[in-house]
Amino acid sequence: xxxxxxxxxxxxxxxxxxxxxxxxxxxxxxxxxxxxxxxxxxxxxxxxxxxxxxxxxxxxxxxxxxxxxxxxxxxxxxxxxxxxxxxxxxxxxxxxxxxxxxxxxxxxxxxxxxxxxxxxxxxxxxxxxxxxxxxxxxxxxxxxxxxxxxxxxxxxxxxxxxxxxxxxxxxxxxxxxxxxxxxxxxxxxxxxxxxxxxxxxxxxxxxxxxxxxxxxxxxxxxxxxxxxxxxxxxxxxxxxxxxxxxxxxxxxxxxxxxxxxxxxxxxxxxxxxxxxxxxxxxxxxxxxxxxxxxxxxxxxxxxxxxxxxxx
Amino acid sequence: xxxxxxxxxxxxxxxxxxxxxxxxxxxxxxxxxxxxxxxxxxxxxxxxxxxxxxxxxxxxxxxxxxxxxxxxxxxxxxxxxxxxxxxxxxxxxxxxxxxxxxxxxxxxxxxxxxxxxxxxxxxxxxxxxxxxxxxxxxxxxxxxxxxxxxxxxxxxxxxxxxxxxxxxxxxxxxxxxxxxxxxxxxxxxxxxxxxxxxxxxxxxxxxxxxxxxxxxxxxxxxxxxxxxxxxxxxxxxxxxxxxxxxxxxxxxxxxxxxxxxxxxxxxxxxxxxxxxxxxxxxxxxxxxxxxxxxxxxxxxxxx
Lengths: 311, 303
Prior knowledge:
Chain A is built from 14 helices and no strands. By secondary structure, chain A is mostly helical.
């Protein structure tokens, strides 16, 4: 926070106090921000208390939407929030350790020149459109024609009906997310590992520290800020995810028995595809907004404001 | 320079310290490590390579297991490659238009973001005016709000403003990036002010100074923001799906979703071709600007 508050004082003639021009310079941005953030929030607060549907503005119904959602009267809401948390935690516990270990291994001098190529290869999946990634994985996970069951069959395993087993919905989404993001986290962590002073490692080597001990007692504490950043931003990203839930399973049905319906897909489903209940979707949006805001506040207090929103 | 000296010194020391046998071990270890990691990287990229392969194949070959490419020597199976899937996508689903829409929205979105954000950042970093710090803090406070949870109000606002079902609505929405203002202002604040003062001509107005002096030297910050926005806008799905109703306005991911929503006899070959186009562009950009992509990444570590 301190770096933001500390504004340098320009001294010259040119940079002296100006009356109107600066306002013209910030106006275009400020207008967009007022419209798409503040006006949207204002409209949203009102909409949450109405039964707006589609293009109808609806009637004021007080806290009915919130009561309906929070009381559990809506059968999908709490399960959707729960699945979002499950997806988020699943993503963290699978991606973080593997990304860290891969980064440590790739940091070793063994790789030399091909490190750059490997780094690029692991970075690529994050560039891929999540819609395309979901679609590709849907085809790879197909029971009869998918590559994955074919590979498993070569190891003598029975065919698994990945896409139609309710218990596998969230694990599959975690898996695709793992594929897209682990490499990216790895590249990020590798960059901060490479910024560590190499003499620290030399001293550790002289003291006879094993590579494993060096990894956990030197590297890990030293890249803690980067680790925290990746952890919290991917938690926020996990809570916001939409495409895997919507596109990974056939017929945009959010998985068998809608068991892949997470929070943002809930908002889309109720607000834009089921009955166009925009009031209800707004209320659900506010609840999710507050949940994510807690993560954002944790991020601001642990690593400071201004790290990019979602990379 | 220094690092190369360091490594050559290291090599000499290695040579002096290690006898032939352990050097041999080191080399083998190196090769084994490379092979294992190369293999992991290859397996990691298999889904992508599979997409690249099948997008050029006829529909019946997409669903073959083992995959067609493994059924014979690869060059033999390449004989069934064709652009038929792309042709189908272009003719039946107007994917060419989808591609142009994606390019248009992304290009305009990036340009609008860069102009609007750098102009505002210029005022916040270099000019003094009443309420500057308060307004800036106010902008910062919006930076991390999860606005995409407020889909329904956003839809309502776009309708009210007459921006619904228009590319302009999307472009302006992407332009309101508080993160962009923050990123560029941080860069400006670190510039040595004397450098700029030396370049300022007498009598030039402030807008001209921004355009002729500040913009050209802020290339690193602008390219970092451009890459960030490019990846975000090109791949965005949920908001365009809500905002763009007309088929003629759809971007590539929406085209793909529309093709997928056909329940009987989907044109999987055309879908794979569309997927290829959607994936191909960011990868090409990444291969060209790899350094900037990765630097943008490590730059944000230092913050």
